[in-house]
Structures are given as structure tokens and as C-alpha cells.
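Look over this entry.
=====
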Amino acid sequence: MALVVGLCLCLLGLLGAYINKKWYNPMTLFCGLWSFICVLSSFRLYGMYTFSNRPYIIILIGFIGFCFGYLACLIKRRKIIIRFWRKKDYGRCEYFIDEKLLLICSAITTFFYAIITVRVLSIMSTGLSASAIRDLYFEASDMTYGSALFAQISAFIINPMMFALIPVNVIYFLQKKET
């Protein structure tokens, strides 16, 4: 399984190099590094234990999501200009982002976190302590998330998307108010 995942990641990396016409883009470097790691882990060097297929499937799903997001951002870009206001930081820095993609991703994360918030509030109404609820949340319990699939989606898609969207949303909405 590790060799299959490594080969798939190599193909995704080559796809990134073909699309960008450069070998040093984030998709190629990221996929190249992890394909190298997956192939080396398949050799079980230094007496390494055999793994189940689950970590490799998680790695592959994560990279397919990464590549999908990377390619979606390449399709259509919008220029956001960030200006520095301090005297010693004259100049500007340009970032490209698609407004519709930003809005869709923000809506998805807000929807998922609203569901989790409602579930946590219902658990709190039963009288469970805050520390027990925190433990349930970090254990990805079915009581908090509702299902194992929802917990996996939250862990591998929603949480990374939320952390990536926080600074982008702040910059985007502050810039909208200025103009």
C-alpha cells in the first residue's frame, strides 16, 4: 500500500510540475517529499513495524484534498493587496485568492462548527462537566461529532480549512472596509 500511495503522490507531483511548468511549486515539492517518505516506509528499514493501510489511506486522501485545493486556486485568482502602515515597512505584498472559493469554504466551516456547537450545548444540558466534554471533543467521540465519518471530515478537512481561513478572512474583510 505504501508503494501505491508513493506512486500516486509522484503522479500528483508530476501533474503539478506539468501544470505550472516549474518543478519547484508547492504541489510538486509537497507530493515529492511525502512520496519519498512513503516509499522509504515500505522498505521497513531499521526493523520498522508494519503499518496497517489506514495511515496510507489518510495520507492519500489528505494529499488529494491538498492538490484539489491547490489546483482550484490556480484556476481563477483575485488580487488582494496588503499595505503596511508602519514607516519602516513601506511597500506592498500581493496575494491572490478567489472570492467565491473563500466564501464557500467559510460557509462550510461555519456550518460544520455550528453543528458541533449545537451538539456540545446539548451535551452540556445533560449535566456533563466541561472537562469531560473537552475530553470527548479531543477524542473525536461519536457523542460530540455524531459519527466517525463526521469526526474524520472535521479532523482532516474542516480544522485545517478553518486555520487557513482565519488570517485570510481577516485580511479580506479589513480590505473590503477600506475601499
The longest strand covers residues 78-83. The radius of gyration is 21 Å. The beta strands are 78-83, 92-97. Residues 1-75 form one domain.
